[in-house]
Design goal:
Length: 276
């Protein structure tokens, strides 16, 4: 489990490209028969990926989590971005097709990731945040996620937002999570940009075709930076930073937030005229 620590915006002003990537980019999430994790001390969020050729068990870490049980004082949201598989939580199997989600609450001791076919393994992307109470494990097929249609072709940002974990749906202590699908020939996400000083956010980009990339925008509105993102990479967005992106081709991304509240509309809009 890698460790990442908070960085203030004044330090980021002087960062090189390499320093931006070292602090905010999660470059490798999926390796065969491995669970890769990054612990961000911004709201103590853990970003991870599991690619089970054979079954993989999610365990704690005495040094990082002070517990052998990963969910002893945490909750987790999971979305499958690979082949079909299943997750066993506390003895119950949950089938996971591509884009299906699963929420598992605090206190569940046994969690195992499995693929239906080792030749096309599942790729379980997950976000975990500290929790103070137990909420029930909930399976979230993509068909049951709440959709919101936004944007328009004229601005290249026509998209559908699917809300998986949120106050009016699958409930959690502090985690909110969902997925945004861009319509064909639309490449902008989250534009106009915004920030929310009361929550941090993580973006995970996937279904980026070979030879394409996403230019993820971050930084203070008056002093923007960018990180070039490849397929199946994540980026940590601190509360003081905008988060938006433009691709060279079509793509999908998963967003997740943790912090002061779970209000989806709690954001500070930044007009395009304000960006520098």
């Amino acid at each position: 489990m890698q460790q990442r620590y908070p960085i203030d915006p004044e330090r980021v002003r002087t960062f090189t490209t390499e320093e931006l990537r070292e602090n905010f980019l999660v470059e490798t999430l999926f390796s065969a028969d491995t669970i890769n994790m990054v612990y961000s001390h911004i709201d103590r969020v853990i970003v991870g990926g599991a690619c089970p050729v054979s079954p993989l068990k999610l365990t704690g870490d005495k040094e990082a989590l002070a517990s052998d049980v990963f969910l002893a004082r945490r909750e987790i949201g999971i979305i499958n971005v690979g082949g079909p598989g299943k997750i066993n939580a506390a003895g119950t199997d949950y089938p996971m097709a591509k884009q299906d989600g699963l929420y598992i609450g605090m206190g569940v001791e046994d969690v195992t990731f499995e693929s239906d076919n080792a030749d096309t393994p599942a790729r379980f992307y997950f976000i975990s945040a500290p929790a103070h109470a137990n909420y029930p494990t909930s399976h979230i097929p993509i068909a049951s996620a709440e959709p919101i249609n936004l944007g328009e072709d004229a601005n290249s940002n026509k998209r559908t937002i699917f809300k998986y974990i949120h106050p009016d749906g699958v409930k959690s202590c502090q985690l909110t999570m969902g997925m945004t699908l861009l319509a064909p020939n639309n490449m902008w996400n989250t534009m106009p940009a915004h920030l929310h000083d009361r929550r941090m956010e993580v973006y995970f980009y996937f279904d980026i075709d070979e030879g394409n990339a996403v230019f993820h925008l971050m930084g203070k509105p008056e002093e923007t930076r960018h990180i070039v993102m490849r397929n199946e990479q994540a980026v940590i967005s601190p509360p003081w930073s905008i988060h938006s992106g433009m691709g060279t081709g079509n793509y999908t991304f998963i967003w997740a937030m943790a912090g002061e509240n779970q209000d989806f509309t709690d954001m500070d809009a930044v007009s395009i005229d304000e960006l520098l």
